[in-house]
Amino acid sequence: MLSSSPSLSLALFQHLPDAVFLIDPHSSDILDCNAAALHQVGMERSELLSHSVLSLQKDVLGMPQWASLAQAIRAAPQGLVFVGQHQHKSGAEVPVEVCTSAFEHEGREYFVSIARNISQRLALEQDLHDRDMQLHYALTQASDGLWDWCLETNEVFFSPQLKRMLGYGPHEMRPSLESWSENVHPDDREFVQRVLHEHLSGQRERYEVEYRLRNRNGHFIWVHDRGRVCERDAQGAPRRVVGMVHNITDRKKTEQALQELASHDALTGLPNRREGEQCLQRHLERCRQLGTTLGVCVFDVDHFKAINDQFGHAVGDEVLRQIARVLGAQVRPTDCLSRWGGEEFMVVCADTRLDDLLVLGGRLRAALAQVDWPTAAVLGPVTCSFGMAVFPHHGSTAQALFMAADSALYRAKAKGRDRVEAAVAAALSDPA
Ligand SMILES: Nc1nc2c(ncn2[C@@H]2O[C@H](COP(=O)(O)OP(=O)(O)OP(=O)(O)O)[C@@H](O)[C@H]2O)c(=O)[nH]1
């Protein structure tokens, strides 16, 4: 039908969206072109026709090169395709993909060149390349580790950086969920799983949690892990979750050091008074709930001023450290020994009756007597006076209990020091 309508063939040629050039293979002159070709190079027909196609090209220089190009075109039955630049009249370069083929018409040879403007495609390719580079960078170079979890197969992609963070090589660590879940610290596992479940079930906007993760050496590092569902099935159920892991071990160490500073006494390393008060309160609430007894022992170094005065503050400090060490070794891990202030200490003992507490007092005195004190030659062995009180007999609040034990301590001092005294229930008032 087309062959029977030359005007339609011409219209088709003129309206092709790609630039089309008809070229004389021998002279390289442009014999004809369509509207898209004129638009592409920004020229009038008169500026283009009878001019060499080489005037549009920067890449083909001179007739000898054209002659060999023409040979290559003749030798390519599907057309010779190359990517180059066309010169726009304004001087701008237009990236083109050119497909040129040879044909014969009425005994004469022609070349037809279709030059497609590929600037958009190149921009897209560049964009993709940039994204590839970014992804490559994120996967290999960024300090954060990435993971990508397919819920259907339970396979997890761990980025090389994530593996490196945990001490593994790029080809180690099975790509399974267990490689991660089995290495979450047992104390953190339940919490982490709960947050993850809450995100997957839509109760949380995102999965974000800090926890400890075991590395290849068996040590735990602290990580900040956050992720999000990025793909769902037709029913809206999560299919794929991606996330990022950041190593926060250093920050955690600093936080723990600050926490330690705020809650512990710098001289002896024992919990400080504030921590001791909180501990007493905590234990008291628990014993009240369980209906058990609670023992409070307050003790104070005897004649400590004399140690400072005779030997100086540094020796006094060392004596305090030694007392903390020696008596700390005598109490149960569940008991809480704190430095109340100066040369006064407190021990809180859960589930302890008065007779147990008096036994403990005796043990603490005996332990002090075993120490080879640096001040002993001049001042004799270092001793302490002890006051004991028990919940609920001597008080029902933390303050009342402490006051009862402190009064007993005062009595121990008054009775000559280096002794253990129990609180007297009848003598106590119990402020609410
Ligand atoms: N080296 C040292 N001395 C301290 C510290 N805290 C308090 N002291 C000293 O402990 C001494 C306590 O003296 P006092 O309250 O008179 O008590 P004491 O001499 O032990 O006499 P009694 O308690 O009555 O047996 C004071 O000299 C304080 O300066 C400390 O951290 N290091």
UniProtKB/TrEMBL annotation:
Superkingdom to which the source organism belongs: Bacteria
SMART domains: GGDEF, PAC, PAS
Domain PAS, residue spans: 12-54, 156-203
Protein's recorded name: PAS domain S-box-containing protein/diguanylate cyclase (GGDEF)-like protein
Pfam family, one: PAS_3
GO terms for MF: catalytic activity
Domain PAC, residue spans: 207-260
Alphabetized InterPro entries for the sequence: Biofilm_reg_signaling, GGDEF_dom, Nucleotide_cyclase, PAC, PAS, PAS-assoc_C, PAS-like_dom_sf, PAS_fold_3
Domain GGDEF: 292-425
